[in-house]
Every structure is written in C-alpha cells, then in structure tokens.
Amino acid sequence: MFLRRGWPGGALYYTTVGGGVEAEDADFEAALRREVMEEIGATIGPATEFLTLTEPGEKVIVVQHYYRADVLDMDLGRRSGPEVDDPDVGDFSPVRVALDASAVRELELHPPELANYLWEHAEEWGA
C-alpha cells in the first residue's frame, strides 16, 4: 500500500505512510501502527523493518525506518490524522500496488532510496 501525494499545480508522486514517534508511542512499531490507522484507516499484521535511511541536517538528523506488513483491514472512514482534514495537503490517497519490480517502477516513488531498494528486492518478497 502506498500513498499517492500531490498538491494543486504540482506533480503526483507516491510514498509510504509515515510520521514521527509521539510521546504515547511505546516504540517505533507502535508509532507505525498509529500512523497507519491515522493516514489510511488500516490495521496491519506483524511488521518487519527492512530499510533505515539517515539524513543529516543542519540542526537535526532525520532517521526514517521503513517496515513491511500486510494490511489486514482498511476503512477510509477511520482515518483521523491531521492531513485528512487539511485542504492544503492536496491528494493523500491510499493506493494498492502489486509488490513486484515492474509495478513499483511505474510509480514516482519517494524517496529515491526507497524506490531503489524496492526495485531490487520486490521479487524476493514473493509478489
């Protein structure tokens, strides 16, 4: 499952559910489960981290953890994140995509490091 993102006048791209760890989150996986519910109204099965990206900045270092998990159920009516009600967010739609290299290559997937990793490993995951 990916998110189709786009703003008026801007190009569409795809990315994953994401966000920060909040005080009430016990760990990264708890944050993941909360973000998945907020952004796409879904519950997921067991999650496995497959990629970590680190971006040094001027004031902070951003570390992004990417997980793979099966979507068990999804109801867009359960979405509750601030991005859902913000008209300035633009297109913020979940899109189910087959996890194979050719399907992933057709997406304008961000960040590029994630796209490259998925292109290389999608077939191993038994699409």
Task: Provide an overview of this structure.
With 127 residues, this protein is an alpha+beta fold. The protein has one domain (2-98). Helix content is 25%, strand content 29%. The protein has four helices and seven strands, in the order E-E-H-E-E-E-E-H-E-H-H. A three-stranded antiparallel sheet has the order 2-1-7, with no helix packed on it. A hairpin with a 4-residue loop joins strand 4 and strand 5. It is globular, with a radius of gyration of 15 Å.
Strand order, biggest sheet?
Answer: 2-1-7
**Proportion in helices:** 25-40%
Number of domains: 1
The main sheet comes to:
3 strands, antiparallel
Radius of gyration from the CA trace?
15 Å
The total beta strand count reads 7
Query: In what range is the share of β-strand residues?
Result: 25-35%
Number of helices: 4
